[in-house]
Design a protein that fits this description.
The protein contains 19 helices and 15 strands. By secondary structure, it is an alpha/beta fold. A four-stranded parallel β-sheet has the order 10-9-12-13, sandwiched between helices. A three-stranded parallel β-sheet has the order 11-15-14.
Length: 519
């Protein structure tokens, strides 16, 4: 997580590609996509390479980034064709993601060493040789006064690293693999990173941690803008993690104006759906886990993070029923918008790559038409040259509770559900445990499997820090968390049960609109 919140050349290239694809879509007419061929030369101008050994390689990588940003599949280095080949598919506003969602641009991969113990120049060739003494495989010898590790003998136990008084031994790990809590990243026959799509849950942590920008997810920027340009109104459903993501000039009061400047009809807070989700999960927990005389479930896990719930179902299928059946805030908000504005389209704007996968599920497609990340939205702002400082301040047309907005940070979901339970069932004692990052989520469920968390409400967040650390965010995690805290303080309603939309939950249920989707 070392790079998170630092604006790097990787972030800059991503933003420029997103902006160019957004501009292409805004200007697109009469089936002409020929302008795509010029984009790599605008993103990477000149004759001399800036980032890699060749300007041609840089542009080739930009071309594949462009294809992914339009929702198209990657091509290998062996395929020769203009970047625009097949791009006409993207003109359809209803085009959904084709798997895989998370992709490795193979010729951008650095073939990073993975799980290798390496002696650095800091080695002093000391008399004690503690590294050699603790090595269980006699893999360490000395040449010219320096430690040398025989990689064929080394079992990567790390004992030498822990005892070196100079810190001269490092464990080199591939950053994407280290960030992957699903252990889904290995190597192909050329030593390049490769994703096991059967294990991947699209959390995007590999994407956020690759320092070579070799990993990217597919986007719906082009399709969203095509829908905006049509006669169908498109509503923006904004995730609570948006607080502070676009800097101090884009205040909460200017969000509505900013999104309308892009062509969106209006804006709805997904925190309203979070309020409804918290109420639903509170009821489910009381009935399923704490119900008498005998509970139906040993514990209940929250449902709002799709990467967490997908991980739980993949690795602990016997406890699939323990994942809350409540709809996620995104889906509840989408259904609410479409109930109030029949025939409209809804674009969810959030921090998360996994939400793209969730929205692509067959039974969710009618609720959420597009998913954009904050990074992708910034590309749209750049394309339309939206000046935040000149925007009009106007209130959002509705207000969620502080607890609903708190879904964006780790612990916020469980906290919101507990506060609902306290009001609905005052005598009920609720025990909770939360985990952030899929490694920790896996450990949490392992302990639950062992019976340690019977009777508990478990919250899982795939991203360390919660949604504010999602792969599509733009701010440092601590800063984003503080911004969410500030917007929570401004909420008139404090808990989900005070939401003005509470009565709609019953209405949704009566119309069978809150029925959980099928996989």
């Amino acid at each position: 997580m070392a790079m998170r919140g630092i604006y790097t050349s990787v972030n800059d290239i991503r933003k420029r590609v997103f902006a160019e694809i957004a501009k292409l879509s805004y200007e697109y007419q009469d089936g002409d996509l020929s302008q795509m061929e010029l984009i790599p030369y605008r993103v990477i101008p000149g004759e001399v390479s800036t980032y890699r050994e060749s300007v041609f390689l840089e542009r080739a990588i930009v071309k594949e980034r462009m294809r992914l940003a339009m929702g198209l599949n990657l091509r290998s280095a062996s395929e020769h064709a203009p970047v625009s080949v097949g791009a006409e598919e993207c003109v359809k506003p209803e085009k959904y993601y084709q798997p895989p969602l998370i992709n490795i641009i193979k010729f951008a991969c650095h073939k990073c060493p993975d799980n290798v113990m390496k002696v650095t120049d800091a080695c002093q060739g000391c008399l004690a040789h503690p590294c050699r003494e603790v090595c269980p495989k006699n893999a360490i010898s000395f040449e010219n006064g320096r430690s040398v590790i025989d990689q064929d003998k080394c079992i990567k136990c790390g004992k030498c690293l822990s005892v070196c008084p100079y810190g001269a031994i490092l464990k080199l790990e591939r950053p994407c693999a280290k960030a992957c809590g699903m252990k889904a990243i290995g190597s192909d026959e050329y030593g390049r990173a490769e994703i096991d799509q059967d294990k991947c849950v699209s959390c995007g942590m590999c994407l956020a941690n690759c320092p070579f920008g070799a990993i990217a997810d597919k986007a719906q920027i082009f399709q969203t803008i095509q829908a905006i340009k049509s006669d169908t109104p498109v509503y923006a459903a904004i995730a609570p993690a948006i607080a502070g993501q676009f800097g101090p000039e884009l205040t909460p009061g200017k969000l509505r104006s900013a999104l309308q400047a892009l062509g969106f009809e209006d804006v709805v807070e997904v925190a309203i759906g979070a309020d409804l989700c918290a109420i639903e999960e509170a009821r489910d927990f009381a009935e399923e886990v704490m119900g008498s005389p005998s509970p139906k479930l040993p514990f209940m896990a929250t449902s709002c993070c799709p990467a967490w719930s997908m991980m739980a179902k993949k690795l602990f299928p016997q406890y699939a029923d323990c994942i809350s059946m409540a709809l996620t805030p995104m889906v509840l908000t989408g259904r609410l918008i479409k109930k109030e504005h029949p025939g409209c389209k809804v674009a969810f704007i959030g921090p998360c790559a996994a939400k793209k996968l969730e929205a692509g599920r067959r039974t969710i497609r009618s609720d959420i038409d597009f998913v954009l990340t904050f990074e992708e939205l910034m590309g749209m702002f750049e394309a339309k040259e939206v000046d935040f400082s000149s925007l009009e301040e106007q209130d959002l047309p509705q207000e969620a509770s502080a607890d609903g907005r708190g879904f964006a940070v780790s612990g916020g979901v469980a906290g919101a559900v507990v506060n609902c339970i306290k009001e609905l069932y005052p005598d009920m004692e609720v025990k909770t445990e939360s985990a952030e990052g899929l490694d920790n989520c896996r450990k949490l469920l392992s302990l639950a499997k062992a019976g340690k968390y019977n009777g508990y409400l478990l919250e899982g967040m795939a991203c360390p820090g919660g949604c504010v650390a999602g792969a599509g965010t733009r701010q440092p995690i601590a800063k984003a968390t503080a911004s969410v805290g500030q917007i929570k303080k401004k909420s008139t309603a404090k808990v989900a049960l005070e939401s003005n939309y509470r009565e709609l939950l019953q209405d949704l249920e009566e119309r069978d609109l809150a029925a959980p989707p099928e996989d």
